[in-house]
Amino acid sequence: MTELQGVIAGAMLALALGIYTFWPENAFANQREKTRLDYLLERKEQLYENLRDLNFEHRAGKYPEEDFLTQRALLEDETAQLLAEIEHLQQA
Amino acid sequence: MQKRMSGSTWMKAAQALLLAVAVCFWTGAASDSARFNNLSHRLMCTCGCAQLLGECNHVGCTESGRERNELSAAIASGATDDQILGSFAAKYGVTALAAPPTKGFSLVAWVAPFAVFAAALLGTILLVRHWSLGRAAASAQAMTPEMVALREKIRRETEAGADGGV
Amino acid sequence: MAAFGSFVLLIALALAAYNLFAGAVALRLIATGQPARISPERLADTARRAGIAGFVAVTGAAFALVWLVFANDFSIAYIAEHSNRALPAAYKFAALWSGQEGSLLLWAWLLGAYGFVLRLLHKTDVKLYAYAGTILAGVQVFFLTLVNFVAPPFSLLRGAIPDDGNGLNPLLQYPEMVIHPPMLYLGYVGFTVPFAFALGALMMRYPGEKWIKITRSWTLVTWLFLTMGIFLGMHWAYAVLGWGGYWGWDPVENASFMPWLTGTAFLHSVMMQERKGMMKSWNVWLIFSTFALSILGTLLTRGGLVSSVHAFAQSSIGNWFVAFLVIVLAVCIFTYVLQRSHLQSEQRLESLVSRESSFLFNNLVLLAACFVILWGTLFPILSEYVQGTKVTVGAPFYNRVAVPIGLFLLFLTGVGPLLPWRSTSLRAVRRNFVIPSIALWGTLIVCLVAGVKPWHDGSFDAGNFYALVAFGLSAGVFTAILSEYLRGANVIRKQTRRNLFSAMYLLIRRNTRRYGGYLIHIGVVIVVVGLAGSAFNRNSESELTLNSTMSVGPYTLKCVGFTQDSNLNYNSEYALLDVYRGGKKQFQMTPEKRVYLASQQPQTMVAIHSVPGWDLYVVYEGTNPDTGNPIIKAFLNPLVSWIWAGVIFIVLGTFVALTPNLAPATVALRVAAAQPSTAEAAVRGGD
Question: Which chains touch A (3 or more CB pairs under 8 A)?
Fold first, then answer.
């Protein structure tokens, strides 16, 4: 390949890439803003997972009963508050 | 080390670790071949290959053979380890030592890692202590009937079913 | 083809620059909500497509370079310097990264490839991906500037065009060298992706922690590449450098190890952020540092700042990297200061004895190890600056300072999984430690009885002492992890009445990250056992005549011939050694020494016979010039193969961790069983 051929090949590639980049595309992906509700629902999933994990570790014998009850109460409290807010937002 | 496993509190573990480190600085007398092995791994080959004298093996090295003979001769002459290392450092420069000397500014090289580690360990322990004390002060929420209902729902949904959910 | 290569590199730079600026403007417009003539979303999408097009352009350049190497076009300076006609095809690919210009192009290409995948997957979270893509483009602009203007791979040779090139560095003419550097680069470059996501999430004040879930597999894959790159490098050093070891604490090795340590710390501590919204600032800085360290690694390798056994491609390019590092840190600090209010922790640690605090300590130790290595690597420069004389910071320093820290880390690997999440009292978890402690002490006693004693010839032997501790801890950690698997599987077994194996399978599928992670820990334990074996290395050196013997450990080596050979690429000398054990001939070994014709550089080809207990490692040291007889050095290196076996577990564990979890059936069951309220139905609808 001579130098000229190389430059021509490069220019053709450049043209193709330019067309690809600036092609007036109307179907580009868009996204609505994440709301507080979306965030809370994500958080709920995580807290549920934490609770399931706590239950599992308890059954695997890694928690003494008393520790487990305190921890579960704390986590459930937190989740309950979260659910309350979710319900509130969903009714609004 | 015994304390570390049976007690397994973090402070004890740290103490044991420091003890282990202190112990490793302690070396004693040994046979000539062991001394050669030891010393040749505390010196660098000075040809610029950046290998330990005891491990320099590249072909045509102009330095390592002669320096190894020098080291054997020095051990045979009955010089102490420090004297031998000192004479190499004097002859070839401090870079002939594979690790920084333990005096002067170079001592900082040895002290800094342990100082930083100890400071960070202490800092972390204090931080966690501080956090856990702050947590204890937090009070419980008042229980409304709605909250109780929500908690029940949560428990239903997260307690494992027959398949033992993880 | 060279003109094509240069031209498309220029186009790639233009596209990356457009991606950066259009992306930045679009995101700014979206963030501030200012009215603009063009829809910012549309502008952002052209930026994204410019990124994809840029990858095609860089691919064109890389293809052009490989083409020219295969065409033996020695009018290109880079190819005359790094290849020759007789070079085998696989190593012609390796020529792409054996020099500075080529490896920078490889870096740009890999970054382009990561960016390509990322930009194709942008629908996962359009805005976050737009931020990450724009930041990647910023990094890409730097590397493409280098390959266009500072280290152009297609520049022509001045003067007469030679008939043949200088050839590839013989140290690189080894199978691993065709995969080790790309792996390591994939790791280095890959950390740009989690870095870009973290920085982007911080810039846009990403609500919640889901971005961590999105980046998790990127981080894990990158980490796996870096891990494999490091281990392949170790194996290469072991099999090629011929000094009997695999890790020399060389600055370049250290450079790859540092981002690995911070990356590993990040992988652990993001779990706390994901679960509990804790340690956000810490994690952001961990990933910033990991990226900065991988740039520093490149700087150390390429910049000639420190002396190293394998500084293959050094030049004054270091200043560019220093400038880039400063810009990166400035951007990180600026963004952090501006957005730090976004990183308030939602929760705090409750107890010193919990899984959380074990993660905290794990991070502390990993960072301490990273500091030790950084300190040791840079201390010669500091010393020269402060006291005017350079000092060497070599293996003895690291062995004394880093080994205890490593053992402490191993200890934590065992302790962490035994502690439950959230607070707990020491009393409560004590029984979890009973069996691992028994295993630890039992192993220590067995080792002492078997002759692994921390003293030697009446004096304390640090190597043996560490090995003893490492064996004990390894047994303890292994038992601890095994008990975790069994404990979990037992719960499932009881509730589902499955057999233990299928319960174990279900357990792993349910929480692939945790149990894959434990598998990685088992791999690490096996690697540590292998590393500890080095305390008992033995060697002997001897000049052999025909039918003479030498012995090392249980083996006797008998020289049955030595000869010379040559081909187009190299001349070689080798010895034929029959290996006897217990008076019986076992196998034959042929250690070899080659002299490559194009570069006139010598190279040892080590003969290695590997069994689980040890490696017999035989080096052809050279020929005695007076007698013409070969000088053979034989090493007996215990447990080396455990290192490579451990890596297999690490790789398997990472694959398990990358597999998506099998969702627990409990929620569906329970929700179906209970009468769903309207609110509940709404929640499920929103999921």
Answer: B, C
Taking a C-beta distance cutoff of 8 angstroms, is the pair A29, C123 a contact? yes
pLDDT at C628 over 50: yes
Residues in chain A: 92
Q: Which residues contact B126 (CB under 8 A, 6 or more apart)?
A: none
- What number of C-beta contacts closer than 8 Å exist between A and B? 41
Task: Classify C315 as helix, strand or coil.
Answer: coil
Are B151 and A81 inside 8 Å of each other by CB? no
* Shortest Cα distance, chain C CAs vs residue A89, angstroms: 11
Residue whose token pair is 């696989």: C90
- The crossing angle, in degrees rounded to 10, of helices B81-92 and B32-40 is 40
Question: Do C683 and A9 make contact, defined as CB atoms within 8 angstroms?
Answer: no
Which residue spans within C582-644 are E strands per DSSP?
584-589, 592-596, 601-605, 607-610, 614-623, 630-638
Q: In angstroms, rounded to a whole number, what is the distance separating the alpha carbons of residues C575 and C549?
A: 12
Residue C596 CA to residue C60 CA, distance in Å, equals 32
Q: How many Cβ atoms are within 10 Å of C304's Cβ, its own excluded?
A: 16
pLDDT at B163: 44
Closest listed residue to residue C200, CA positions, set C263, C284, C140, C117: C284
Interface contact C621, partner B, CB < 8 A: yes
What is the spatial distance between Cα C421 and Cα B136, in angstroms, rounded to a whole number? 17
- CB half-sphere exposure, A5, CA atoms < 13 A: 3
- The model's pLDDT over B64-87, given as tens digits with 9 standing for 90+, comes to 778 888 888 888 888 888 888 888
CA angle C79, C222, C316 (to 5 degrees): 40
Specify whether domain B2-107 bears CATH 1.10.8.640.
yes
> Chain A contact for B163, CB < 8 A?
no
Contact, B112 vs C375, CB < 8 A? yes
Q: How far is CA C446 from the centre of its chain?
A: 34
Check CB contact under 8 Å for A7 and C4: yes
- Give Cβ neighbours of residue C467 (< 8 Å, ≥ 6 apart): C452, C532, C533, C535, C536
Among residues C47, C51, C66, which one has the least CA distance to residue C113?
C51
What is the ipTM, given to two decimal places? 0.86
Tens of pLDDT, residues C162-198 = 888 888 877 778 887 788 888 988 998 999 999 999 9
Torsion sign over Cα C341, C342, C348, C354: negative
Q: Do B20 and C465 touch (CB under 8 A)?
A: yes
- Phi then psi for residue A56, to 5 deg, are -65, -45
The answer to whether the CB of C167 falls within 8 A of the CB of C87 is yes
Does C351 score more than 70 pLDDT? no
Map out the domains of chain B as residue ranges.
2-107, 109-158
Alpha helices in C419-511 (DSSP H): 426-429, 434-450, 462-496, 500-510
What does the alpha-carbon distance between residue C440 and residue C437 come to, in Å, rounded to a whole number? 5
Task: Look at the alpha carbons of C562, C564, C565, C568 in this order and tell me if their dihedral is positive or negative.
Answer: positive
Distance CA C61, CA C219 (A): 28
Q: Give the integer Cα–Cα distance in Å for B115 and B132.
A: 26
Which residue from C103, C228, C75, C240 is spatially nearest to C163, judged by alpha carbons?
A: C75
Domain ranges of chain A: 3-91
Single-letter amino acid, residue C575: A
**Within C146-208, where are the H helices?**
175-190, 192-203
Sign, Cα dihedral of C620, C621, C623, C626: negative
Bridge partners (DSSP) of residue C630 are: C623
What's the rounded Cα separation, in Å, for the pair C33 and C179? 48
